[in-house]
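Hypothesis: this fold can be encoded by more than one sequence.
Test: take the structure tokens below, design a sequence, compare later.
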């Protein structure tokens, strides 16, 4: 069974940075894509960044230019570098992996709080 383990969340001041990690128990090359979702209180879970098996990246408009998704295939790990953080970025962040046709895997979530 595929497992995704997240780390790197915490409390930062507005304008600060965090790097989230998502370590997979299998080769990340075996997934069509891996992405990061976030869910704030009272909001639905929304995708914020995605990286495909071919290396193509996509971002939600709200994080474009501030967040960067990347991967280390040798370590089976995907990262989310978050810069210029804003209070509205506060949420639980989840790692998600998709494998065709109908396989979805989720991490446990990690809390990111942006506050002064």
């Amino acid at each position: 069974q595929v497992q995704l383990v997240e780390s790197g969340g915490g409390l930062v001041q507005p304008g600060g940075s965090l790097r989230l990690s998502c370590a997979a128990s299998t080769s990340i090359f075996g997934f069509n894509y891996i992405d990061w979702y976030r869910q704030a209180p009272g909001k639905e879970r929304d995708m914020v960044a995605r990286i495909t098996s071919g290396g193509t990246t996509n971002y939600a408009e709200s994080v474009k230019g501030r967040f960067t998704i990347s991967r280390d295939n040798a370590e089976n790990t995907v990262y989310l570098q978050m810069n210029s953080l804003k209070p509205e970025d506060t949420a639980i962040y989840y790692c998600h992996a998709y494998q065709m046709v109908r396989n979805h895997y989720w991490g446990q979530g990690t809390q990111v709080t942006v506050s002064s």
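DSSP finds no helices and eleven strands in the chain. The mean pLDDT is 97.
Hypothesis status: open.
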